[in-house]
Amino acid sequence: LKRLAKSDPMVVIETDEESGENIIAGAGELHLEICLKDLQEDFMKGAPIVISDPVVSFRETVTGESDHEVMSKSPNKHNRLTMKGYKMPMELQEDIEESRVEATTKDTKERAKYLTDTYAETF
Question: Which residues of 42-80 are buried (b: 16+ CB within 10 A; e: fewer)?
Fold first, then answer.
């Protein structure tokens, strides 16, 4: 485990005091799969290991308005887009959860009109 942690700086290894389990934390499920493959094949010479399902925690969130704007230019340098980050209103979160707003909707104009009519004043 120490060799795995040393070979990959994105890996954090901890031991649970109660259960004695070794917990390997990485940068996502794919990263963990690669780390476990390396651990078993390279570092343990194929010895069997017991692997539980990964637990993925999402902890990133926007808590308020961004303090600066960002700008991007189109590939032809004729168009500029400026953006600022805002916290998503609770009503919009509820609309997404209740499928009133879906990213998979084929009619993007219809979705854009709904979002503009409903939430334009929020921002």
Answer: eeeeeeeeeeeeeeeeeeeeeeeeeeeeeeeeeeeeeee
